[in-house]
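User: My instructor asked us to take a sequence, write out its structure as tokens, and then describe one feature of it. I'm not sure where to start. Here is the sequence I was given:
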Amino acid sequence: MPRFPSNLPDWMRARFDDGQRFMVACVICGLLCGLTAVLFHLSIHRLFEWLWTTASSRERGGEFVLIMLGAPTVAGLVCGLIIRTTAPEAVGSGIPQTKEAYYNHGGRISLVTGFWRLVLGTVYVGFGNALGREGPTVHATSAIASRLGRWIFRDPERIRAMIPVGMAAGIGAAFNAPLSAITFVFEELLDNFSMKALGGIVVAVVIAAAVSRSILGEDPVLSIHLSLHYQTAVWMLVALPLGVLAGLLGHFFVSAVLGVRGTSLRQKAIPQWLAPAFGGLMCGGLGLAAWWLTGRNGAPEHGVFSIGYESLERAFENKLLVGALGVLLAFKLLAVVVNFGTGGSGGLFSPTLFLGGMLGGLVGNGLCVLNDHFALPGFPGNGQVVGGCVLLGMGAMFGSVIRAPFTSLIIIFEMTGNYSLILPLMGGNILAWGIAKKLRPIPIYDAILVQNGVSLKRLPAYRGSQDYRKLPISTIVTYDVTVLQSSDTADATLKRLKSQNTRYHAYPVVHPDGSLAGMVTHHELDSAEPTREIRSVIEGQDLLALPPDTSIRDAANRMIARNLQQVPVVSGKDKGKLLGILTLNDIARQQNAVEM
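Assistant: Let's start with the prediction itself. The structure tokens for your sequence are:
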């Protein structure tokens, strides 16, 4: 196993053993990550507060509209340019990038990437775009943890082990909810419980959360408290239908995000660096429309802009009318889809909780109407009914979209400090999670990696027997492949492969326009006349090419039937567009993992 140089002085390495150095690293990591998360939180909050105050002071004129349209657009333009030229890893949430670094790159995340993640997240969300801060916080704090690991340790596994520590510390400080931070790391990153990993994670989370509470106060990020006791049996009848609605809405939301993101990556009409500005302009228009519509029958709400927790708290307190809840739900969903889909820099945690809260508020208002007419037994006053439904909606939506059901349960419990809703929360969250998983087996963060051409075959979530039978080959495909040109000669190709120290059993061959021509084996190149072009070697080939949504089991059966060791994977819409290579070794690796 390769070892990396450490900058730690020799006397310090001799004085402390590996376990002690790891604990010291976790303490330092918790402190730095806590301060980073608080700084990020305050910078976004203060920037948007300044923006909204400035715009509101010019509300009577056209300047208000220009400011609230222009600020998200300019922020998108800045982010697009920097992401395109300087910090490509700062796009999107940051959690997919963190998972890729942990499993595919030995836990190595550049500190420069973390810096740009904070800067662009502050600019993009602080200027009103409808994404969250928790995902970027995770990416930035994981970069800090990675750098600490490379400074203190030589062992690559110790460096890699610092990523869960930074991830947990970031979530714990961002939400001020330490227990849910721990469960999220195990559900999203590690995928299994490990006492060995738990110790360092707990140390970092405790310190990061203590830093956050010392600066921001003792309350969680959402100040919503329930003092009333809820009857479990009655509220189960509310939680289960709400779980179904959240599961379906969450599936629609994830499909829309991935669909717009995929279209944005493929389209050529708008340059990629300009796409976030277009998303910002759309968000500004949607936010202004929602502000105007909610103000027609009450106080206008600006919850579509930025994080929007103020509107979520008012929904919990039953201060929003049904029309306002519906408008905020619809327009926030659209704004998040266009912001994330066009390549903005921000996360999905906050928007997911917001959407779930609005959905719960709508259900709660419906229950209030029934309660007024029929005096439903076991239900409290209308305000408490709406508040309870808002919390149930938040938890169920989080379980549906983020696919971390235990985290969704604990985070709501930590926010409210009320235990009486725990069983309804469990029922609704698990139901929403189960529906979303059935409709889309691959969670959103992993689906984003697949869209980016990243193989998931190293991730433990794809080593189960059910996954082996049903998951698409896109989760295990090798996307970084050596491609040969059909017009090259066999001799020239062999010399190039030798100079590159590259040798595989077979290679995909493409035409001059980049379209797939076929597959050629190394043996066929060796056996061919030196001056013979590759196109003639593969002429008349009966090529088997598979789309990425083919199940792993189906692909294995078809390859075995044709006695093929590898096949090209092509776009479902363009059969000539090569995406990667699938080999029987990839499939066997999955099968062996199942049997272990």
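For the description part of your assignment, you could build on this observation: The domain at 232-451 is CATH 1.10.3080.10 (Clc chloride channel). Try explaining in your own words what that tells you about the chain.
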